[in-house]
Q: What sequence folds into this?
């Protein structure tokens, strides 16, 4: 049960049941639609960027607990950050869920609450669930409009 | 579908599932320290020892290329390969081995028919009719064809139980319908289609009828002459055989008139740079060195199934399906998706507020293998307004205890996410 508890930590279950910032944003400056073709999950990520600062982030979509919690916690984490900080955080999160364990352990302390997603590492087929919102957010910032986990 | 209830009950009671399980080496495996509970046979079935041994035996004792050499091994391999074709003919009750074409699987068979028959007979403004139950492999090859030809893909809708609306199916048949292609059994929901009646209706409209038998072959006795269809396809890996091998049945007069699909060795009678002529049936459609050992092992799989008897397998699985349907239906917050009167071996379900991926991960932790997702049937999911389901699918080696384990696992899922 340990690995499973590691994956489904309380904070992840909490965010999946009560996602934060799950709403459309009418005055979004950036948005993208993400799609995980493996499971059919979809996520729309909205950002409002003023100058260089992300002043608001939200998301909509349906997905599993991991993808919902990841989107929810991402929106909390990004608010108030500069675009450069957001991009750096994306890289660290990506390492956390995909890099070899030593690298993941290295970046975990820099990720604060987001470090709870380290458990996803043990479940390779769920990595895409955790990273869908992040890829979608990155696509939105880069103006791509569409993201896929493939 | 079933001869009689008491007859079925007697067959099911005679099924020695523990003896059958001992024939499947993989069932001795553990997953996360728990005994494997394999409920994903609709994706791919596990293999009995007879099939594994046969494939090894081919490589150890009679392997060479087929239809080519004068040497001893090539003759042994060719004979075994053609005996497998005979086994497929018998399995489908086709009239002649000339009507049995080996392919990689059902997907390739449908593509073959779409490309070879379809490109010659479907033109601008013509129609191809499928149902709302289809697997992507019985949608996309026809879309490709229709796009190329300016033809239209029509879809017979399904009702809330997952049954094809036969009246709508009939209405959608028009003088422009050139091809009807329907699944025998739905992979996502388990619905058994009335393919014999659908074939009659298709023929009455002047269309040729193809049946996708991928999910039917392991569970129902297939008789292509009783169905009356023009084409029938199935995959070896779902009927306890190897992956990468399957068969297409086609009526000889249609296959004769169809152009080759792929060119290469074995499919020709003669080749010059000016013109080549085609080999006779079925070799015209078997270009290149085939999956030799896989084909011979598929023959062993069909022999294995026939020796145990599809009627007995079907009766055992029907008992499990009834048991599982009742047990899962009694779980609060669980809804079975696909409740057609005629069903085979599939329990697709959703849990209130819990995504199937989470269900699958937690069940896997208990050693229970189920499929989660859209099951390559996104239009079916759209029809029910859901992104995905969890699907438990049953095979001849499953037990009531395994369904109990599934129900207990679902309980743990609900505890965790409730």
A:
């Amino acid at each position: 049960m340990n690995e499973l508890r590691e994956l489904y930590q309380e904070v992840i279950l909490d965010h999946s049941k009560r996602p934060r910032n799950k709403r459309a944003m009418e005055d979004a400056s950036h948005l993208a639609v993400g799609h995980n073709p493996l499971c059919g999950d979809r996520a729309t990520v909205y950002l409002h960027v003023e100058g260089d600062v992300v002043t608001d982030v939200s998301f909509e979509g349906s997905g599993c607990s991991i993808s919902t919690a990841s989107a929810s916690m991402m929106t909390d984490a990004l608010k108030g950050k500069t675009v450069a900080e957001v991009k750096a955080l994306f890289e660290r999160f990506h390492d956390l869920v995909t890099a070899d364990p030593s690298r993941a352990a290295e970046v975990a302390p820099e990720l604060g609450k987001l470090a709870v997603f380290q458990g996803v590492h043990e479940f390779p087929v769920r990595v895409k669930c955790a990273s869908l919102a992040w890829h979608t957010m990155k696509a939105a910032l880069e103006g791509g409009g569409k993201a896929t986990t493939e | 579908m079933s001869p009689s209830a008491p007859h079925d009950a007697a067959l099911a009671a005679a099924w020695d599932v523990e003896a059958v399980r001992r024939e499947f080496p993989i069932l001795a495996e553990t997953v996360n320290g728990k005994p494997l509970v394999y409920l994903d046979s609709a994706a791919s079935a596990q293999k009995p020892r007879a099939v594994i041994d046969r494939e090894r035996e081919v490589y150890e004792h009679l392997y060479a290329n087929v239809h080519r050499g004068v040497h001893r091994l090539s003759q042994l391999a060719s004979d075994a390969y053609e005996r497998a074709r005979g086994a497929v003919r018998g399995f489908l009750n086709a009239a002649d081995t000339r009507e049995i074409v080996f392919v990689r699987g059902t997907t390739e068979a449908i593509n073959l028919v779409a490309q070879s028959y379809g490109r010659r007979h479907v033109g601008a403004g013509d129609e191809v009719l499928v149902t709302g139950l289809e697997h992507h492999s019985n949608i996309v090859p026809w879309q490709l064809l229709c796009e190329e030809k300016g033809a239209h893909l029509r879809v017979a809708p399904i009702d809330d139980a997952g049954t094809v609306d036969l009246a709508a199916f009939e209405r959608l048949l028009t003088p422009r319908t050139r091809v009807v292609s329907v699944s025998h059994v739905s992979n996502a929901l388990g619905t058994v289609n009335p393919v014999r009646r659908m074939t009659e209706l298709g023929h009455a409209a002047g269309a040729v009828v193809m049946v996708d038998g991928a999910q039917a072959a392991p569970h129902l006795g297939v008789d292509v002459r009783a169905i009356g269809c023009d084409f029938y396809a199935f995959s070896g890996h779902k009927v306890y055989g190897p992956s990468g091998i399957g068969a297409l049945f086609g009526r000889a007069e249609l296959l004769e008139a169809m152009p080759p699909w792929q060119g290469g060795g074995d499919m020709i009678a003669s080749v010059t740079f000016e013109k080549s002529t085609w080999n006779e049936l079925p070799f015209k459609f078997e270009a290149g060195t085939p999956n030799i050992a896989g084909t011979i092992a598929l023959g062993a799989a069909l022999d294995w199934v026939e020796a145990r008897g599809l009627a007995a397998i079907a009766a055992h699985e029907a008992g499990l399906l009834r048991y599982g349907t009742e047990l899962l239906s009694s779980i609060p917050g669980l809804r079975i998706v696909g409740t057609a009167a005629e069903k085979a071996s599939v329990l697709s379900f959703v849990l209130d507020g819990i995504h199937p991926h989470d269900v699958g991960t937690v069940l896997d932790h208990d050693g229970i293998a189920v499929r989660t997702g859209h099951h390559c049937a996104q239009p079916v999911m759209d029809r029910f307004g859901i992104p995905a389901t969890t699907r438990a699918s049953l095979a001849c080696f499953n037990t009531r205890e395994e369904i109990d384990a599934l129900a207990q696992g679902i309980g743990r899922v609900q505890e965790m996410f409730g």
Notes: The first strand of chain A starts at residue 30 and ends at 36. Helices of chain A lie at 2-7, 10-17, 65-78, 83-98, 101-107, 127-141.
